[in-house]
Specification:
Layout (H helix, E strand, L loop, with lengths): L10 H15 L4 H4 L3 E8 L4 E8 L2 E5 L8 E6 H10 L3 H8 L23 H7 L4 E8 L6 E7 L10 E6 H8 L5 H6 L3 E5 L1 H21 L1
Parallel strand pairs: 1-4, 5-7
Antiparallel strand pairs: 1-2, 2-3, 4-6, 5-6, 7-8
């Protein structure tokens, strides 16, 4: 795999210069290589902007243009984006979210697509187009303070406020990743708190689970 920058670089350099080359060199599942998908990225704050990640013909192009027509958009502050990539912030959820920007890493593999914080698999992406809302995930209690990442489901403008917010402690996120805590049990016990549109969250998870089951059957 093309060496990841050892120290923080600005989003433009990582997305437009490093990422396409890293994608070309990485060992990736066939479903990713053979997909024709467009993902949106919006990073907020100094050095941020909008991009479209377009996978087609086995290659990745990163286009500095509006993400408004994409079915799924990764939304995050530049500080939290940089913190997950270079400082380990956000724990397991931060690692899953950072996987989108580190092709070939364990966190970025399609097998982790159904995990909290990870981008959906290519099979789930177009189904997301039928949804409309912003899901925000907040990890609290970790080193460096709270960490957040959001996903815009469906095309259109980014809402000023999230439609739904999921909150989980850093310790519980780590326990779920290690298989020591069942996500459903954590939810029923109130250890994963959901505020806002619960239906949207359930629809997003149902699409991801269905796509994961179909991928397992075809493998």
């Amino acid at each position: 795999m093309h060496a990841f920058p050892p120290s923080p670089v600005d989003p433009t350099e990582l997305l437009e210069r490093w990422l396409p080359e890293a994608f070309a060199r990485a060992e990736l599942p066939d479903d990713v290589r053979q997909s024709a998908v467009r993902l949106g990225v919006q990073l907020e704050g100094q050095g941020g902007g909008e991009w479209v990640l377009q996978i087609e013909g086995g290659a990745l192009r990163v286009l500095p243009e509006s993400r408004a027509e994409t079915a799924f958009t990764f939304v995050q502050s530049v500080d939290d984006w940089r913190g997950a990539l270079w400082e380990g912030r956000g724990g397991a959820i931060g690692q899953a979210a950072a996987g989108l920007f580190r092709p070939g890493s364990e966190a970025g593999a399609s097998g982790g697509a159904a995990r909290v914080g990870a981008a959906p698999s290519p099979a789930a992406l177009e189904q997301m187009r039928a949804l409309d809302g912003l899901v925000r995930i907040v990890v609290h209690g970790g080193e460096g303070g709270d960490f957040a990442v959001s996903f815009k489901l469906g095309p259109g403008a980014i809402p000023p406020k999230p439609s739904a917010t999921l909150s989980v402690s850093h310790a519980d996120a780590e326990a779920m990743q290690q298989g020591q805590l069942d996500p459903l049990a954590a939810f029923m016990a109130g250890r994963i708190r959901v505020e806002g549109d619960m239906t949207l969250v359930m629809q997003m998870q149902a699409i991801q689970m269905q796509a994961a089951m179909q991928a397992k059957k075809s493998s």
